[in-house]
Amino acid sequence: MTPGKIFASSIDGVRSIEREGLRNLDQPVNEKTACDLGSVTKIVSTTSIIMKLVESKTIAVTDQVERYLPEWASYQRAGVTIGDLLEHQSGLREWQPLYISQENGAQARQVIAKDGYAHGSGRHYSDLGFITLGNVITEVLGTDLESAFKEWVSNPLGLKSTQYRAPIDPSDVFASSFGDRAEIEMIRTQIPYKTTETLEEFTQWRDHILEGEVNDGNSFHLYKGVSGHAGLFSTAEDLLKYGEELLSSLHGDGYFDRKVLESFLTPGRDQMQGLGFRNWIEAGEIEYWGHTGFPGVTLAISPHRKNVLVLLSNRLLTEETPEKTEDIFADFRSTMRNRYIK
Questions:
Q1: Distances in whole angstroms, Cα of residue 217 to Cα of each of 4, 45, 190
Q2: Of 96, 129, 146, 186, which sits most exposed with the smallest number of CB within 10 A?
Q3: CA 292, CA 311: separation in Å to the nearest integer?
Q4: Pairing mode, if any, of strands 297-302 and 175-178?
Q5: Nearest to 236 by CA among 30, 28, 23
Q6: H/E run at residue 130
Q7: In the β-sheet with 35-36, what is the strand arrangement from edge to edge?
Q8: pLDDT value at position 55?
Q9: Residue 41 confidence (pLDDT) above 90
Q10: Which pLDDT belongs to residue 233?
Q11: Cβ-based neighbours of 76, under 8 Å, separated by 6 or more
Q12: Which residues of 14-43 are buried (b: 16+ CB within 10 A; e: fewer)?
């Protein structure tokens, strides 16, 4: 069982935050408890910055990656575009424990494009693709990703409890897991992804409860908590605010350009995937779009129902088989549907 959860919603701008259980092994969850967002970082930070860069015509989703990262021309990745990375259609591997074989992000940047699938081979959900998008952002803006996020997203939107590396209030945060246990198991079993790295090659495995430090191994060990794929901490209130801003933008009175946002939300070669945003399909139609995060997080927005749903949890903090984030969110979605949709 998942020790603690926050279920938050914004229905026509009216917010509700409900909580249950423990944020760690003995302290109760409260409405302001922060959480490691995992891959929800992909939309709140990386995709959001890229939308603003597209809006300002600084970049285009049709731009080839090698325009900004010249090494890509050497690895048979010519033709891969920013849009391909956003849609997970670049051919990059899904995941790799880069921190085992690479000493820093600069080294990793040189090897990410070497292996993987052929460009055009279909959708392969890729952390490495969003690490690459983070590299593109830093090259384009000439600044680090953490500063770019503050300038282009958190400061303009007033997300006062959202930042990289650690929560704003380290005394009130979900403990995410028992050390690096999940990634150790992934490498040991080679499930769900095969890797060439071995456990014995790395000596800095974390074996303490992760509370206030980034859960994702690549983000923590290699990128010091700041990456395009993971590293943000936030609260339910801030995520509701972010989702509400997206809804306002779709009506032409928000921070993001309506046409740019609509283009990012439109499904591409895969009905479940837009540019950065993933889709939840119900009865053949998009019910929500947003993203999930490995620690047990979901941000979902429905323009048709004018609502935002946020799930925060510590599903990995258990000695049992963790609940799936999708299952926890499906129950939440069903509850909200029964409660508000007549």
A1: 22, 18, 16
A2: 186
A3: 9
A4: unpaired
A5: 30
A6: helix 127-141
A7: 35-36, 232-234, 163-164
A8: 98
A9: yes
A10: 99
A11: none
A12: eeebebeebbbeebebeebbbbbbbbbbbb
